[in-house]
Specification:
The protein is of the alpha+beta class. About 35% of the residues lie in helices and about 25% in strands. The strands form two sheets. Strands 1, 2, 3, 4, 5, 6 and 7 form a seven-stranded antiparallel sheet that branches. A two-stranded antiparallel ribbon has the order 8-9. It is elongated, with a radius of gyration of 26 Å.
């Protein structure tokens, strides 16, 4: 399967997000994205956990006072002559409420080839602005501006939403290009790169990597203005996989049957190794047990999988 160029700009996705009102699920968004690139397969790979961001200010009737709570608090403090008590009195008199943006990030995968790195990750936020607290808690008055913006003891109210939820385009990442950039910022091979290289040379490569794993990129500027680039591997498995029991002391067909059962439930060969490297469900002691088994009288791993396990024993890593 040859890698194909994907003609999909972030601007197109951003415009699509602005026009589409989310429904009960995100299938309509998926269908719209697929229609933009019909020659590629697009999947909603994962829906992230709920997060929230500081929102704005509304009055007691839900009328908008400001979209940016932080900017409003700082500006109003100046307008109050930098008198904190005057600011508090003003907020209480007007009965202002604070909003926040709640959301989940949707991770769409666009397949571009057969290698582990051959996919594009499209991140889109699904957000909703809600009102859930008074701007100032009269029972526990704030001590500074930060205590108004993000209080430790907020005066909560029954939550209600402002308008409908929205889609907001975050970013598009060609994972193959990103991994090349990642390697340039790390002197040694990055564990995530090694994980993908091991996948490509293992029997698991018969299955598309992005059906069970995705790469989440991280990029930010350090304290000395340097660009810091990193990556995290996310497992997409939604079924209930069992913990692979401690296999120390087991050998031969008993050990092989345990590995095979785990792989079958995961959906592909040599799955136990990658879950072990991720530190999920499989202990590294199990890798050592398998290694001792295959260096003895038993040979049940394929040659390429055995080579990967031997390399891991010689130089262990995790992601």
């Amino acid at each position: 399967m040859t890698k194909q160029a994907v003609e999909l700009s972030g601007q197109k996705v951003s415009e699509l997000c602005k026009k589409l009102i989310p429904g009960k699920d995100d299938l309509s968004l998926l269908a719209k994205i697929q229609a933009l690139i019909p020659e590629h397969t697009v999947r909603l790979a994962r829906t992230g956990d709920e997060w929230y961001r500081i929102g704005g200010v509304v009055d007691s009737n839900g009328n908008r006072i400001a979209k940016d709570l932080i900017e409003w608090v700082e500006r109003t403090f100046l307008e109050c002559g930098q008198n904190f008590q005057t600011l508090i009195d003003h907020v209480l008199e007007q009965e202002y409420l604070a909003t926040r943006q709640t959301g989940k990030t949707l991770y769409f995968v666009i397949e571009t080839g057969a290698l582990a790195e051959d996919f594009i990750l499209l991140e889109i936020d699904k957000t909703l602005e809600v009102v859930d607290r008074l701007l100032v808690n009269e029972e526990v008055l704030p001590e500074d501006l930060e205590d108004i913006i993000d209080p430790l003891t907020p005066a909560t109210i029954d939550r209600y939403s402002l308008g409908h939820s929205r889609y907001q385009y975050r970013r598009k990442t060609d994972i193959k290009i990103f991994m090349q950039t990642l390697s340039q910022h790390h002197a040694l091979e990055h564990p995530v790169q090694r994980f993908m290289d091991d996948w490509n040379r293992s029997s698991a490569a018969k299955t598309l990597f992005s059906q069970d794993w995705i790469i989440r990129p991280y990029q930010h500027t350090g304290r000395y203005r340097e660009q810091i680039i990193n990556a995290e591997i996310i497992n997409l498995q939604t079924g209930q996989l069992p913990h692979l029991e401690d296999m120390v002391g087991k050998q031969g067909s008993t050990l092989n049957n345990l590995l095979t059962r785990f792989d079958r439930q995961a959906g592909y060969s040599f799955a136990w190794f990658f879950y072990m490297v991720k530190g999920k469900l499989v202990s590294p002691y199990n890798g050592e047990a398998v290694y001792h088994d295959i260096t003895g009288d038993f040979a049940y791993l394929s040659e390429r999988d055995e080579a990967i396990l031997r390399d891991w024993i010689a130089s262990p890593y995790n992601v």
